[in-house]
Structures
1.
Amino acid sequence: MITVKGKKVVIIGGSSGIGKALAKRFVQEEATVYLVSRTEAKLQKAKEEIGGNTFILPMNMLDETSVNDVFKQVGAFDFMSFSAVNDETKLMSQIKDMTTDLANRGMEKFWGTFNCCRAAANHINKDGSIVVTSSMAIDRPSKNGASIMNAASAAVNVFAKALAREIAPVRVNIIAPGVVSTGVWTEKEKESFAEWAKNTLPVAHLGTAEELAYTYFNALTNPYMTGTTITVDGGLTLI
């Protein structure tokens, strides 16, 4: 594994969930961490919790100017993780009732990933790496009205694989999570998912942000891995 002490890490979605858990790991390894997300107040709270050599940069991942400005401020860097979400759980709709506006919003995950990767490509060091977030739904699509979000995750997956070839030797990998207990769900939903996971998943528990962050860290720091999709879903694709 690559030593990350003194390296610069950009974490898109760093104010909560997987991103915050990953930031904690990098800070433990004495890296310089840039937490990037929409809301400055949430970023400041995360910074205070994480400590270390941490900086915050508010950003709208869907605004090209906002994204470019953030990466100009960061300058040359070594690692980027993208795990940000944009109210994805509120975009469920059966195709018969899906509006064009909702369908366009459902692709925001791809466009956010694209905007950040495009900007990052102009600043990342040649021995650096990027990890983006798809979903295990690329192999086991949902039937509960998430078709457009599944499509966005598939687009992220293929885009990142192509990028791994285009910007080599910079490495680009993809994490495909299953259901994870993060802030995108309400407490009631988390309780329901926890019971479901206990009775359904081979690992018999719901995934945590820390468990996912472990995989992001390994993918970012493995110098012999690129263009790879890593599914971390507790065995959901097996059932």
Note: DSSP finds eight helices and nine strands in the chain.
2.
Amino acid sequence: MQKILLAEDDPNLGELIQDYLELKGKFEVTLCEDGHQAMEAFKSSEFDLCILDVMMPKKDGFSVGKDIRRIDKTIPIIYATAKGMMEDKTQAFELGGDDYITKPFRIEELLLRINALLKRSAKDKKAEAITKFELGEFFFDSLSQTLTYNDQTQKLSTKESELLRLLCLKKNEVLTREEALVKIWHDDNYFTGRSMDVFLSKLRKYLRKDPNVEIVNVHGKGYKLLISNPG
């Protein structure tokens, strides 16, 4: 059974959501009425998803979400608020939120969003477990941090290995600059961006031995690891 942390200061609404999700979604829901309770609950147990009301006493939902992200970078977070203001929505995603729902909402819609996020989370976890990749004539082992071409093995630094692994997980798709910086450096400022450029240059140098493998810039978005068939 999957566990949900629900932080909602309206006890009637909180109990309604809790009862519905436990009945219809077959979840175990821990209900907290303020931000402090929510953080204590999160620290003392393991959860699969968090639903955080933005306007809560003692500690608001955005502050709770920010603290949760310091502990767990991947747990899905849904923010709920009565405001519905664009700046709140923007802040929700800037703080690492995965979804946003505006009150009043239909509980059925919330359940659909929960199921979609949990399905995506399970898929991401499965992908995250992959540690070995074939890149054209290369073999990349992210655990040993080695990139092998024929009988030649290049030892990668931790950052090089993490960056190449992210590119491999999104092979032939765009890896945004922001995602790479946040996941590897936990920051997306100018200086970490310049640091990442250095590691990208090194990876491109390593991969030159196979002309069918290249890392290309996607203007205004990020990077893409392209692997084409020879011939």
Note: The first strand starts at residue 3 and ends at 7.
3.
Amino acid sequence: MGAEKQVALVTGASSGIGRATAAKLAEQGFQVIAAARRMERLEQLAREVKGIIPRQVDLADPEDVENFCRYIGELDDPVGVLVNNAGYSIRGALEDVIIDAARRLYQVNVFSLMRVTQACLPGMRKMRKGTVVNLSSVVGKLAFPLSGVYASTKYAVEGITDALRVEVRPFGIRVVAIRPGFIATEFNEVGNEMTGNLMERTDPEYQALYAASGAAVGKLFVDATVPGPDLIGDIIVEAVLSENPKAVYWGGFMSEEWLQARAGKNDEEFSRYLAETTGLHDLKV
């Protein structure tokens, strides 16, 4: 499937996987609408890469999302490739999660993804072709302790993606899920910023939980080589250009190991495996 000067839309394009994907699609000849909050970064990308159209949108703001969707609907050439990349994480045991923070997380990771997809689908249906790429995560198939709310947004993305793939198949539209593992981007820093200082606000009984889990997960990264966002950008471009893309792709540090472990164990076995791996199986508080 060649680019043929199609219009592509990439959300969360100011950094990380989104930026890499927008640049790579533009290099393949797509006219790429690069959307994100940080306009100065998008403008810098447009200066560096031919074929980038910077467009500011705050996906945490429903009104701004509606304005953006009207813009999509008024394009002379419809979006033929949509990459729903924007998303972030908040962390903490469920008891510590601030509900307003969870609502904002769902607005960005789930509701805005749905709304932007809705805005792009009529044009794809009219063309009888198109590709929707939804960025899930390995945690779309398994939930790490202390990240359950974030994982739940990716579980939702997986469900939406699975249903949409079948719904729009008769119109010639392909739907792909991408499940990155750990990738070296700003993702962790943003997650820490959006979460705030958990150790200050949590009940002292949870502090041992956070410490044990942090130590156990930290061991996984000793001497590890964590790939950068180009790996996932290349996978996305591969899926977009393929005549018959796979339903799901994955890549990144620990992606294969975690997904194989989840697929190969029943629920009880996996629960024990996860507790042991994250240092919580034998912890008593």
Note: Strands lie at 7-11, 31-36, 52-56, 79-84, 130-135, 173-180, 248-251.
